[in-house]
Amino acid sequence: PSEVVKNLRKSVDDHVRDAFQSKVYKSQDILAKVKSESTWYIGLDVELCKLIVERNTVPCEGGFRQKYDPKLRYSSIMYLTRSHYEEFVKSIETPVLYLEGEKGVTSILPHLKGLIEVLRGWNSNISHKVIQGPHHFHMSNPEETALAIQRFLANPTDLQTPDVIVNSV
Questions:
Q1: Residue 143 and residue 137: Cα distance in Å, rounded?
Q2: CB within 8 A of 55, min separation 6: which ones?
Q3: How far apart are CA 119 and CA 103, in angstroms?
C-alpha cells in the first residue's frame, strides 16, 4: 500500500512517454550471440537463439532491432495482491499442466522457488513437471517436452504422478 502512489505515477509516466526504442544490432548473428550469453537464455546455444532472434527482429537503419510491444516494459497500472492471485488460481476448474525448465526461471529468480507448492495448495487441479533444460526447455529438449504434454493430454486428471525430471535423449 505504501508504494501505490509511486507505482501509479511510474505507470502513467511510462504510458505517456515516447515509444521505447530497442537497441540496434548490426546483425542477427551478433544478437543471437548476445542472447546465448544472457541470463534468460542460459543453456541455449547460439543456433537455438538464432531461431528466437529471426522471429523477433525487424530490419532497421543500421541493422536489426528486436520487435515487441514496448508497453511490456511499462510499469503495471494495477498490481494484484496475493489474495487476488489466490482467488484467480482457485477459480480454475480445468486440469493444468505447469511445465518448467530444471534451470529455468526459479533458478534465475530464487524468490519464485516454492511457487508450485503454493499454487497446488490453492488448486489441486495443477500437475507439475520439471523438464531438463533452461527457461526455453521446449527448444533445447523438444521431444521430452512434447512427451510430457502428450501424457498430460491423454490423462489430464491423473494428478497423482509425482513430479519428475524428464531426461533429455
A1: 10
A2: none
A3: 20
Determine phi and psi for 9, rounding to 5 degrees: -60, -45
pLDDT in tens, 92-108: 999 999 999 998 888 88
Among 131, 151, 149, 150, smallest CA distance to 141 is for 131
Which residue type, as a one-letter code, is found at position 116? I
Angle at alpha carbon of residue 42, lines to 37 and 43, rounded to 5°: 120
What are 48-90's pLDDT values in tens digits?
889 989 998 999 999 998 887 666 667 776 778 889 999 999 9
Global confidence as pTM: 0.68
Tell me how far apart the alpha carbons of residues 41 and 35 are, in angstroms, rounded to a whole number: 6
Q: The C-alpha cell of 14 is what?
A: 511510462
The set of residues, in sequence order, having a beta carbon less than 8 Å from that of 52 and lying 6+ positions away, is: 32, 35, 41, 136, 139
DSSP string, 59-98: EETTEEEE---GGGGSPPSS---HHHHHHHHHT--S-EEE
